[in-house]
Amino acid sequence: MRRLGTSLALLMSLLAVAGLVAPASAAPATERKLLTEGMGSYPRLIRLEHSGLRNGRIVAAITSEDARGRFAPIFQSTDEGRSFKQIGEVRDPEGGPNGMCCGTLYELPRQVGRLRAGTLLWAASYGQNAGAARRIGIKVWASRDGGRSWSFLSEAARSHNRDGVWEPELTVDAGGTLWMHYADETEAPQFAQVLNRVASTDGVTWGTKQRTMAIPPHRVRPGMPLVRRLPDGRFYFGYEICNYGHRFCDPYYKISPDGANFGDPVAPGNQIATANGNHFQHAQTVTLFPGGPNGTRLLMVGQIYVNDKGVPLPGNGRTLLANDNLGAGPWYEVPAPVHVGRPYDDWCPNYSSTLLPVDGGANVLEIAADYDNGVCKAYFGKGPSR
């Protein structure tokens, strides 16, 4: 999911020789499949690239719930996303009684402190159901065996009031520092929500939070940060901005030269839309694919697909957007492999779906959530990426 650029084609070809990747031929979208019988939301996908003999395997995570409370089951695919098997779980004690949401999955591309390259990190918000006196924290867990077993690593942030800290995103910058980006509601009433970040050189101790984005007036809410390292060494920083002008929660991006600096926090960045103004509302994610004239294609999924006036389009829940110029200029439509019926502003249907290149980049693997008889469940499928 990260650091996939011009090196992806070489990686895929080597994996194909090893028999770990199917031939790179685009196939029609398949019927969506249920990832697991239980509740499933906020999915994440990565391909192991720094894990030695495990390289090429696909690892997925979701937020789920059982009689013991919220937790994160971890799944693996060794057949390019045609099937998944659960291999582990992250079950923080606070997730049982107090809830958990909006987790992220990341593979370290290089050593950070005592954490070797290939270590998997899971981070999520805990404590939202703890009542009026709640203090929400973002906790980090680590796996050194490809997602099978997990150990608590650190707490990277904790709210000082009952407002939330949400949607963590992990990345290692050009200098080797580990960063966690997150949405922060604790600075109200000055700002309803801002984007902050904290740094660590070992994954255990985290520095003082730094401001990434805060846009006046009070009601404007930047959120849902994501970071992707581009093949030229720069970093794509994506996010949504809610309540900005007449817009609801539209996608934007900036480019950071080093993954540590993100420019003026007040500047909104570049808005993302097609040539005629079609765009996603809410919960966008972006993944790097091989392709296009520059060798790298950005592929985006969002919750609600609308026209320039904010009216849902016929392709709502069945459309991805692509860009062949590292985000610049208009984006164009690509069919989504997982169809979600009429997504709307809600925490489940098509909310923060996830994408990954498979079959040498010819196809896109998607996991998306949708309701099934009132239960939010995660579905997966794959289809052509172009």
Brief synopsis:
The protein has helices at 6-18, 95-98; strands spanning 33-34, 41-47, 58-66, 69-77, 85-90, 100-107, 120-126, 137-143, 151-158, 165-172, 178-184, 194-200, 210-213, 221-229, 235-242, 249-256, 270-271, 279-281, 285-290, 296-301, 304-306, 319-323, 332-335, 354-358, 363-372, 375-384.
Give a verbal description of the structure.
The chain is mainly beta. It has a single domain (6-384), classed as 6 Propeller (Neuraminidase). 4% of the residues lie in helices and 44% in strands. The protein has two helices and 26 strands. The chain has helices at 6-18, 95-98; strands spanning 33-34, 41-47, 58-66, 69-77, 85-90, 100-107, 120-126, 137-143, 151-158, 165-172, 178-184, 194-200, 210-213, 221-229, 235-242, 249-256, 270-271, 279-281, 285-290, 296-301, 304-306, 319-323, 332-335, 354-358, 363-372, 375-384. The strands form seven sheets. It has a four-stranded antiparallel sheet, with no helix packed on it. Strand 25 (363-372) and strand 26 form a beta hairpin. It is globular, with a radius of gyration of 19 Å.
Question: What keywords describe this structure?
Answer:
mainly beta, 4-stranded antiparallel β-sheet, 26 strands, 4% helix, disordered N terminus
Count all strands and give the number.
Answer: 26
**What percentage of residues falls in helices of 4 or more residues?**
under 10%
Indicate the CATH architecture. 6 Propeller
Elements, N to C (H/E): HEEEEEHEEEEEEEEEEEEEEEEEEEEE
Distance between the termini: 18 Å
Overall CATH class: Mainly Beta
Mean pLDDT across every amino acid position: 92
CATH-derived topology: Neuraminidase
Largest sheet: 4 strands, antiparallel
H/I helix tally = 2
- Taking Cα atoms only, what radius of gyration do you get, to the nearest Å? 19 Å
Beta-sheet strand percentage? 35-45%
List low-pLDDT spans.
1-25
What is the approximate shape? globular
Number of domains: 1
